[in-house]
Amino acid sequence: MAQEKFTFQAEVSKLLDIVAHSLYSQKEIFLRELISNASDACDKLRYAALTKPKLIEGDGDFRITLSVDKKARTLTVSDNGAGMSHDELSEVLGTIALSGTQAFVEQMNAKAASGKKDSAKTGKAKKADKGDDMSLIGQFGVGFYSAFMVADTVDVVTRKAGEDKAWLWSSDGRGEFTIDDAERAARGTDVILHLTKTEEEYLEPLRIETIVKQHSDHIPIPIILKDGEDGDRTLNTASAIWTRPKKDISADQYKEFYNHVSHAFDEPWLTLHNSVEGVVSYTNLLFIPSNQPHDLFHPDRKAQVKLYVRRVFITDDCEGLMPPYLRFMRGIVDSEDLPLNISREMFQHNPQLGKIRSGLAKRILGELTKKAEKTPDEYAAFWENFGGVLKEGLYEEPENRERLLALARFRSTTQDGLTSLEEYVSRMKKGQEAIFYMSGDSIEAMTASPHLEGFKASGVEVLLMTDPVDDFWVPSVGDFDGTEFKSAARAGADLDKIKGSGKDKDEDEKATKAKDKAAGAIAPLLAQFKVALGDEVKDVCASERLTSSPVCLVTGEGDMDARLAKMLQQNRAAGGLGMVPQVLEVNPGHSLIKALNKRAKAGDGKDSLINDAAHLLLDQARIAEGEPVKDAQAFSRRLSAMMESGLKV
Ligand code: ADP
Ligand code: MG
To answer: How many angstroms separate the alpha carbon of residue 595 from the centre of ligand 1?
Structure first.
C-alpha cells in the first residue's frame, strides 16, 4: 500500500505550533504524557480481555518499556496495550481527543480573541505571549502532542490487539502526518521520538529515571528502562497507589496521581483515601480539585470517577457511582465485590454499587463538614467553585438534605463574606419568622433593587442568591430547621411584625400605626390604579417595604417566583407558559404618590393623567427589575403627554 498523507485538524496545528516553539522549562512532562497513554492502552486491553480473553493470549504481563539509542538520538516508549487500527490512528492522532487538551485550546482561542480586541483598541499588534501559553500547557497538559516539545520527528508503530496488520504514523509536527505499512511482532505501540539536538538529556538513563520517579511513579504497571550497560531496570513502584498504606504516600505522589486520573493540572483541594470493609468492601482515592473543571456545567452532568474492580479498570463512565451533584469529584473507586465480567451498562443497576454510592456521598459530605468547621476560609474557596453544583443535591437527594443545608453558604445584605443558615437564624430580629432571601442575576442588581429598601431601613438581613439552581431548591426545601424561607420579592413580607427596627416598643407601635394610616390614606389612588391597569397586574396595594422608590413589583403570595417563571418560559417553545401577573406595590410615603392621591381624591375617577401615571409607574417598576417595557410606543406616548402637562402647569 502506498503512503497516505493527512493534514492535522486546524486546532492541532495551532497547538503544535505553540508546543514546537516552546521555551517551557518543564518540557520533561512529555514523558509523563506518553507513559500515561501507554498505561491507558494497557487498561483498555485488560478490560476488553475480560470478555475476549483471546486478545491477551500469550502475553498477560502488561508493561511499559523505555529504550534509548544514543547514536540515532531516539527515545522510544513502548507498551503491550491495545494498540491502534489504521482508522483509529488517523482519527485519534490528528484531532484533539483529550478533554484537558480541548480546554487548553479553548483557553488559547479565548486569549487570541481578547488579544485581537486589545490590539484593535490600542491600534498596536499585541506581542505573542509565549510565557503565558506555556504556563497554560503546564496547567492542562497537551497529551500526545507534547512529544513535539523535544522531538523534531515522531514515529508511532502500532498493532491493534487481535489484528495482524501494523502501521507506521509519522510526522514532523508541521501540519501533516503520514501513515504507512509497518511490521510489529506483537500487539502494542512504540512511540519513537527523534530528539532535537538540544534535548539530548533525555537519552541519559539517570535523567529518565528521575523524571519517571517524579511524575509517573503511581502508574500501576512496571515501567522498565532498557539500559544497555546495566540491563533492564524497573523504575517505578508499579503497584496501584491506592493499595499502598497512606503513610507511605507523599503529597507529591497524591498530586501526580490526581493529575493523571483527572487530566487536570492543579493541586487537589482535598484528598480522600479510605478503605471500607463490610457488606460491601472498597477503596476510594478521591480528590476535590482546587479549580473548576471546564466542563462542570456541561448539560450531561456526568461524574468522572473511575471504577476499578479488584485493581482492573472497568469504566470512567459509571452513572451509579457518584451522584450528579458531586460531579466535581475526581479519582478512583476500587471494589472488592462487584463481578468482573458484567457489562458496563449492568453496573448502573447493581445494588452493591448503590451502597458504595451512598457510602461515598456520606463520607464526602462528612469531610466537607469538617473542613467548613476547621478552615472556613479554605471552605469558602471550595464553595465559590462548587457550591452551585452541591446545591443541586438539596432537591435531588432528600436523604442528605440536612447535611447539605448545613454546608450551604450565602452572601447577605448585612454580612461581608459568606454566611451559613445557622448563623443567619442566630441574627434574626425579634418577631422575624422567616429567612428572607432574594434571587437574581447579580449581587449588584439585587442590592440596588427597590424590594430591599424596607429590609435595609429596618435592618432585616436578606440572603442574596445568584445561582440558577437557587430558584429550584428553595421552593422544594421550604424551610431550614422549621424556619421558612420567604422571598423578599413577594407580597406580604410582614416587615411590620419585626420588632427592633425602632428604638423601643412604643416607637415600633407608633410607626406601625402611622404606616397603616398612610396606607389607608392612598386608598382612592390604589382603586384608580387597579382600574387603569386591569389584567396587567395581579393587584395594587400599599407597600411596607419601600422607602425611596414610588413603586415596585412583587410576586403574589402562592405564585411562582418571577425569575423561575422567566427561566421556564425561556426553556419552552414560543407560546408556552405566559408570565404570571405580579403585584404592584405603591409607596404611601412618597411625595409623587401623595400628590397623585390628592388628585385622585378630587377627581371623578376618569382622569387620564392618573391613568397614564399608573402605566408609567408600572413600566418604571419593570425597568427596575431589569425587564423590558412591554409596549414601547404606548410608553413614549404617555411619557410625552406627561411632560407636556408638566410644562402647562
Ligand atoms: P488522551 O490520552 O487524553 O486521550 P492524548 O493526546 O494523550 O489524549 O492521546 C490521544 C489518543 O491517542 C488517546 O486517547 C489514544 O486513543 C491514542 N493513543 C495515544 N497513545 C497511545 C498508545 N500508546 N496506545 C494506544 N493508543 C494511544
Ligand atoms: Mg494522554
So the answer is: 76
